[in-house]
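Per your request, structure below.
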């Protein structure tokens, strides 16, 4: 049986999903790109600056889903920030085009099973909620046909003259003691105020808004607000983690308000990657494989290519044929160890994946998971074993 979360929810599904998302973000950071800062409105990003929304309900996506959907918009060149499920596209009179691949987003919440409610009533204890995490597949409206015209049309970027008042209103609504002046931007935790130089002090005044929102995000961590740990000294993991929080919060606010700043905090990228690794679930075998591939690629200037083919039905290392070559613009040969190193790492990866699938199958077909699915979905059965309700 797979190891289960002590609160009753299988931990394997959540952990694998966290690893999957964390891996995507780490890949972007280690390549020198910030997943929450995108080149909106350029040839690289056809969609306008905006938060991703469900085109049917108008509800905005939040949290990690923002980064997932922004990444999909950039990588596929979608011209819209609107998304739909397969059924929503049908309900609007359209359909998802044949061959289109969706993007996975997540939904997290808690529920209290009926048995737990009864137990709490009988014992007088507080009912314990069970956390759950669901995956959903959504499609960009550009992947659909037959939708109403107003859903497909791209939303124009807001005029710059309308942006500053919205930022000012947001800061005032936050209740934070916000001061303009001086020659540097900072949040002072003890007296609890934010100080930011005036917009004219910035080389590009548009970046004043991003800096102001960044410092306000720091202020949100005060003990009487969200209560984050703000004691980290410069260069420490605590400091880097708090900077990561403020940077993402600022990026989300900018997108929601239609602000496209140009400043980049590239100096934090290295420490952010370390922070995410430290806080994310770790798998030493998978990290060892990744390190081996990265090392051999580095020795070959990231020019190696590998082609894998499989025999039969089973995708494990004993059924793989691996071809490795180097795509060098000057015809340079790969290093002597390259073929063996890549082949060994990919076979290790195939072995790791196959074992994950075995464990996942064992877990999903276990009596505990089946019982939990019945409870979570409220299924009821007759004495003859037929489901009803």
């Amino acid at each position: 049986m797979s190891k289960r979360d002590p609160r009753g929810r299988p931990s394997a599904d959540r952990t694998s999903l966290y690893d999957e998302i964390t891996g995507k973000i780490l890949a972007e950071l280690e390549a020198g790109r910030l997943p929450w800062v995108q080149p909106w409105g350029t040839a690289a990003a056809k969609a306008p600056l905006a938060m991703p929304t469900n085109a049917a309900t108008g509800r905005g996506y939040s949290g990690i889903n923002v980064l997932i959907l922004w990444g999909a918009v950039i990588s596929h060149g979608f011209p819209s920030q609107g998304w739909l499920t397969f059924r929503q596209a049908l309900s609007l009179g359209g359909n998802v085009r044949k061959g289109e691949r969706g993007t996975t987003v997540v939904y997290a919440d808690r529920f209290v099973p009926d048995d737990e409610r009864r137990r709490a009533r009988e014992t007088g204890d507080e009912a314990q909620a069970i956390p759950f995490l669901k995956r959903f597949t959504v499609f960009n409206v550009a992947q659909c046909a037959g939708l109403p015209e107003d859903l497909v049309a791209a939303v124009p970027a807001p005029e710059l003259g309308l942006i500053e008042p919205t930022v000012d209103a947001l800061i005032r609504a936050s209740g934070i003691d916000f001061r303009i002046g001086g020659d540097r931007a900072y949040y002072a935790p003890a007296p609890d105020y934010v100080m930011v130089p005036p917009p004219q002090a910035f080389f590009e005044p548009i970046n004043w808004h991003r800096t102001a929102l960044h410092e306000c995000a720091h202020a949100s961590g005060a003990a009487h607000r969200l209560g984050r740990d703000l004691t980290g000294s410069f260069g420490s993991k605590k400091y880097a983690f708090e900077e990561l929080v403020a940077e993402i919060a600022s990026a989300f606010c900018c997108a929601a308000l239609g602000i496209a700043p140009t400043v980049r905090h590239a100096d934090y990228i290295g420490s952010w990657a370390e922070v995410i690794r430290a806080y994310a679930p770790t798998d030493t075998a998978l990290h060892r494989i990744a390190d081996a591939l990265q090392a051999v690629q580095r020795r070959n200037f990231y020019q190696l290519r590998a082609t894998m083919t499989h025999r039969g039905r089973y995708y494990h290392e004993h059924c793989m044929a691996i071809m490795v070559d180097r795509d060098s613009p000057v015809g340079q040969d790969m290093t002597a160890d390259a073929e063996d190193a890549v082949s060994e790492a990919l076979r290790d990866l195939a072995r790791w994946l196959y074992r994950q699938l075995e464990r996942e199958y064992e877990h999903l077909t276990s009596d505990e998971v089946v019982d939990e699915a019945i409870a979570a979905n409220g299924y009821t059965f007759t004495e003859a074993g037929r489901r009803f309700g």
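Confidence is low (pLDDT under 50) at residues 1-11, 156-162, 263-273.

Regards,
D.
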